[in-house]
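Re: your question from the hallway

Yes, I did run it. Sequences:
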Amino acid sequence: MIDVLIIGSGIAGLEAACNLYESGKEIFLLEKEKNVGGNVQNWDTLFPDGKNARDIISYYMQEIQARQITTYLNTYVTGIHKCVDGTFEVHTSRDIVFKCKTVLIATGYSLFNAERKEEYGYQIYENVVTSADLEKRFAQQSKNQLPNGKPLHRIAFIHCVGSRDEKSGNHYCSKVCCITAVKQAIKMKQLVPDVEVFCFYMDLRMYGPGFEEKYREAQEKWGIQFIRGRVSEVAETLDKRLQVKAEDTLAARPFKLEVDMLVLMIGMESQASTALFQKSCGLKCADSRFIQPYQHHLDSNATNVKGVFTAGACIGPLSVFDTINHARSAAISVSNFLAE
Amino acid sequence: MIEEYFVLPFIIGLFVLLVTLAIKYVSWIVQLSHIDKLRVLQGFFTRRTLSAIKKIWKECLLHTRIFKTNPLLGYMHMSFAFGWFVLILVGHIESYIHAESLSVPPWESIFFRYFHHEHFVGERFFAHFMDFILLYILSGVFLAYAKRLYSRVFGIKRSTKLKPKDRIALLSLWLIFPARLFAEGATASLYGNGGFVTGTLGGVFSFFEINSSFELAMWWIYSSSLGVFFITLPFTRYMHIPTEVLFILLREYGIQLKKEYNSVSKIQVYSCSRCGICIDACQMHHAEISNNQSVYILKNMRDENLTDRKLYNCLLCGRCEQACPVGINLNDLRISQRIQASKEFNSSYDFLTYKNTPQTDVAYFSGCMTHLTPGIKESVCAILEIAGINYLFLDKEKGACCGRPLMQAGQYQAAKKLIDYNRQQILDSGAHTLLVSCPICYKVFKDDYELGQINIKHHSEYFLELINAGYISPRKSDNIIVYHDPCELGRGANIYNEPREILKKIGKFRKVRIEKNQSLCCSGSLGDLSLSMPDRNIIKEQTLSVLLKHNPDILATACPLCKKTFVKGTFIQVKDIAEILVDSIKKKTALLPEMENVCE
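Structure:
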């Protein structure tokens, strides 16, 4: 019987694994993809200081290798079952049943599928991309051009795509997209100094360290324009540019804008597997479909099921550094539970 | 003779009834517009009157439409209406034969058994026949009692709530026929003039040795219950009994509802029998909303105490209208109330400037909702290009709204401005066909635009024509497709077959349990601006559970709003007919060189 089975090997799972290993627990890591790292692999740089995301992943890779933590790749969970003695049986796609004392869920989030907001034309119009797509382009350094080779003159970012949006069923804030948009907008300006950048927002939530300063810098130093108002619809022109219809709600004025590229700041959604856990072991979920922490303040890693813990964005949108902190606290919570 | 005073309640009741009806009906007919009055005059001596009488016979007496919804409920209504009608008719014939004259006062016919005990030609036949009819009505009365107790047996899950005056009317109606049975039974006991039912009851009464004062008391009860019912009738839902006759007549003469609430609307409102069939048709009850169904709205309209909250909380899906056995235009009635209730907002639309419209054969109007679902817009244009149609994308750049959402909200004057603007543009284009990809636009173009000779086509109609004429040839795939009927296209514009025809050509089409004129609403309707998103989602999920029962590959629809609504509720592909069609054509033509390259 192992001590802790960690589901998910994104930064949350990896951080928790290292900490639990240090405290002498026997642990296994499960990962549904073919390599570890999770969503952070798709990122180029991280706010607020522009740290390279690949550095974070390689750091954790080294840590895991150094400790020889057993990791099952290409393995996903099909059900968590609680036994009468309080231990768990975790069934997986590999027909292996893991018996463990505790389960640590570190499955993170999935990105909102922007095709569901059809009015923005993602996957219909060539030059509509998501924030995740843009990050990949940054990583490949193919930034200052459109895919068809034309230069960029003007781009726009749309905030809150699939967040704070009752119509798409997600009424919550995804927390990180505001600062990500600021980060990406500045990056665009750095790469293509002549480009005009517009951000369409509802509210700007600059909650973290250095965020507000970044936002100020974006306006003062880089001349990025922030317009309060949601975009209503997007149409493609003959030369594949995009015509954006929006309203500047501060000026109470509707207007149109033609841009070369449109970036959709997609939000976070609960993983499909969360619903599976909910079904198989009665895990309680919030209205947002993310896992409901047992107590927000004093016990945010525990869940309503004794012995099942959470680490990272499976409880709701979190930034990278919040995730790492949450994973560390998860390790402490699990250790305390096992000591009892 | 002092005993005969018992006829007074009946006479007073009948008098009050006739006078009230006369005042109401004359005032309504006087208020009809000049053209409508001409319609009545011109229609009166034509076949229309005959066809109206036929319909009155079928609907007001036999209640065939209720029969179709629920045979037991239909039988109940038929026994009351048709039975009573026969009872009155045969009762009069009986009294005429007895008197050998046509000048018989009405109370003598109604209370015939009390007045006449002597033998005459056919007396036995009439006694048995009248008893048979009375028994038939009593079976209906019995069902009515049972319905109040066990409404589910009648297929009615939720019944209407009653008010005191309704209760009085209802009780008096329930009392009339048992009272008649007892009165005639008492008379039969004393004079032996009963048929097989009243005679038998008379035998029972003889056993108790009843006297003539008991007999008189019974006739008093009978007469009083008739009198009470007649007096309450014009002020309760039973007003529908005479009004439905008037409604059917006017409808046959071609008189329709107008935008404003007028006497035609009133006639429709008063024709509502409050049977409650519309309550079960309404999907709102899934969200536990049970005060805004049409039957309540019509009642509030009659009592003039309708609140905005109830009035505006309706998706205008039209399912109640489809279910209504009287055929009342429930949606348009509601909209007419919204027009009355809505104030003029800032809607000058000065920024709309007329511009020169290029000439074309086919004008394509996509509408706001299609602009919000660019996948549909692109597909429609792609198909038109493949088919080589000379078309103009009318609202590609600066389109104005078609006006239908404003119309649904009751903003009629504002809608009119948009309609005038768009109408001019469409007429200026010289197009012979107006192609529309949104049923919401389609409905208003058909109903309110007055475009004359221009063919208005929904894209499902138009594309089917293109396929049949060989302009485009789709390839059939193995995808299992189910189709959702959009409210505005199906019930709103009566288009059910064209989308199905197309889908049968491009995939494996499967029927769903509730479809065509009964189809459920997606809940995305613009007709309701007050329904909360969680409540909408409950209705949407219920609709999706019906549509996706058999796990189709594609959920097809023909309305951008339905598509947008469903996409957020399922992981199964939701596509407009145009999108599925363009896929099936493109697959076939993929081997050909691209058009653009050829042109260059």
